[in-house]
Amino acid sequence: MKKVKNDTGKTRITGCSICVQQTEHNRLLQILRRKTEDEIPLDDREYMDIEEIRRSFESDREEQSFLYIQPSVTSGDCCMAEQPATITETKECNMQKLTDDIEKILFSEQQLAECVRQLGSEITKDYADEDLLMIGILKGAGIFMGDLIRQIDGDVRTDYMVVSSYGNSSVSSGQIRIIKDVQVDVKGLNVMLVEDIADTGNTLNALKDLMIERGVRSVRICALLDKPARRIKPIDIDYKGFEVPDEFIIGYGIDYAEKYRNLPYIGILKKEVYE
């Protein structure tokens, strides 16, 4: 793979499709990471790009065991050219650092997929003759939201909110701060708040009250996980995936200090990591 300039002086990357695709993914991820760190809202197109990258890497894991091939000779247009190469199993090295922090896996990738399918089927049935605006609560619900909307057969629109209540702590502060609000007028709409996990009820109660104040036609809540042992304020969850114990949950979009979101399953984080 190499960079060349065209007649207009612009630089483009040439080489095999695998190399070019990997380079483009890395470039996009760097942009998204910088925007996330600076708390700059991402638009719908960028969230779709994130989902595409995630699924592309899942395919790579299945087909190529996610091996990184680094040529010992840098000549040639493609890093996959026939030349002596050193193969480093970076998946085992990098992922091991994350999995070592996991106490127990609660729900596998297959269990999550089936749960999302069932939730999508219920929502499809309940909103068969009505439109629906689904509001994903970022960042935790990002992956869940992306998978869920593709299981709903109906007139569905999406928007997102970023609400902070944890920061780098493992305990909810009880203070709700809206970092990113919805971009559409919700008045007169059927709204569904999509959350990764319902625990204290502080965030969901505040957001539900906010939607009612804005004059929505109806507001319901969909949560992938429910942790009733941590409840401070009562909350009605209309669509619920799994009930979880009073442990620190991570994976499938759910993080601790911005780590573990990329795990394809949901697990319990070891106490020594966050205490």
Q: Can you give a write-up of this model?
A:
- The protein is of the alpha/beta class and 275 residues long.
- It has 2 domains: 2-93, no CATH class; 103-274, Rossmann fold.
- 34% of the residues lie in helices and 26% in strands.
- It has helices at 17-37, 44-64, 90-99, 109-126, 142-149, 202-213, 271-274; strands at residues 2-5, 11-14, 68-71, 85-88, 102-107, 132-138, 156-164, 177-180, 190-198, 218-226, 239-243, 249-250, 266-269.
- The strands form 4 sheets. Strands 8-7-6-9-10-11 form a 6-stranded mixed sheet, with helices on both faces. A 3-stranded antiparallel sheet has the order 5-13-12.
- Strand 6, helix 5 and strand 7 (156-164) form a beta-alpha-beta unit.
- Helix 1 (17-37) crosses helix 2 (44-64) and helix 4 (109-126) packs across helix 5 (142-149).
- It is globular and about 50 Å long.
- Residues 10-14 and 61-90 have low confidence and may be disordered.
How is the secondary structure organized here?
Layout: E1 2-5, E2 11-14, H1 17-37, H2 44-64, E3 68-71, E4 85-88, H3 90-99, E5 102-107, H4 109-126, E6 132-138, H5 142-149, E7 156-164, E8 177-180, E9 190-198, H6 202-213, E10 218-226, E11 239-243, E12 249-250, E13 266-269, H7 271-274
Parallel strand pairs: 6-7, 6-9, 9-10, 10-11
Antiparallel strand pairs: 1-2, 3-4, 5-13, 7-8, 12-13
Helix pairs in contact: 1-2, 4-5
